[in-house]
Amino acid sequence: MVDEGNDKDEGTPLPLACPLPKGMDLPTEEQYLYCIRCGLCLAVCPTYKLSLIETDSPRGRVALVRKMAEGELPLRKSFEAQMYKCLACLACDAICPVGIKPAHLALQARAVAFENLPQPWIKRPLFRGLFPYPGRMEWATLPLRLYARLGLRRVVEGLGLERLLPAQLRDMERMLPNLPARPLRQTLPEVTPAKGERKQRVGFFLGCVQSLMFAEASQATVRVLAENGCEVVTPRDKAPGKAIYPAPKQCRPSPPPARRASPPG
Ligand code: SF4
Ligand code: SF4
């Protein structure tokens, strides 16, 4: 099993077959040159604020992706881990004066790493066979919803039984939010009319977990939008998870270079 983000388990770096992967929306050379090192993206980046390390910053990630795309930086687990540090808050995308989109790049670089680097065995089935399908997600989380809604959770906490769980499961149990009796996708209308005069029409995507794990917050968001004159459209069958992995699948590791024929003699 591969320990994601473990720099010691980097394995052989994989050179990419396509220096500029198809499907990756990379900044133009001009934009790279126009990066005026203004630091605006640093000021809004939570991961940079935490560490004050350049590679944890949006422009640092842009530089890493650029080097990877140009074939100068091998694709390794440490590169992938760096891309996963990005919280995808999109603050940097919005603020860059020359239109570089560091968050967008980091997400795409994750997809390249996902396709090309070894992953924990469970990750691909989850990301390909479960998260993109809202109906399957709802079935898969049914035991969790029953656990929370039938009062089992209170019993477990009351008796201190969670101490018997392995540390990782115990942490997950503690982080489990209040789950709705029914997934929000099944209860929220596809179109929520604006209160009063309609000023805007907005789309609200429930993603892969919003409907289940953050149902209250999602419902409140729709309510606030409607109160402020927005008609809110919530597509039911929009495949989620795509925002996490835009998946430019075309980018595969290059085959090992052909051996040169030994010079005669
Ligand atoms: S999207 Fe990522 S890189 Fe951009 S500000 Fe947020 S955490 Fe930083
Ligand atoms: S905001 Fe844009 S131009 Fe400014 S340093 Fe960041 S990437 Fe460069």
How are the SSEs placed, and which strands pair?
Layout lengths: L28 H6 L5 H5 L1 H6 L6 H12 L7 H9 L5 H5 L6 H15 L6 H8 L3 H7 L1 H8 L2 H7 L8 H9 L8 H4 L3 E2 L7 E4 L11 H13 L2 E4 L32
Parallel strand pairs: 2-3
Antiparallel strand pairs: 1-3
The chain binds iron/sulfur cluster (2 copies).
Please give a structural write-up.
By secondary structure, this protein is mainly α. The chain has helices at residues 29-34, 40-44, 46-51, 58-69, 77-85, 91-95, 102-116, 123-130, 134-140, 142-149, 152-158, 167-175, 184-187, 215-227; strands at residues 191-192, 200-203, 230-233. It contains 14 helices and 3 strands. It binds iron/sulfur cluster (2 copies). One iron/sulfur cluster (SF4) binds next to helix 3, helix 4, helix 6 and helix 7. One iron/sulfur cluster binds next to helix 2 and helix 4.
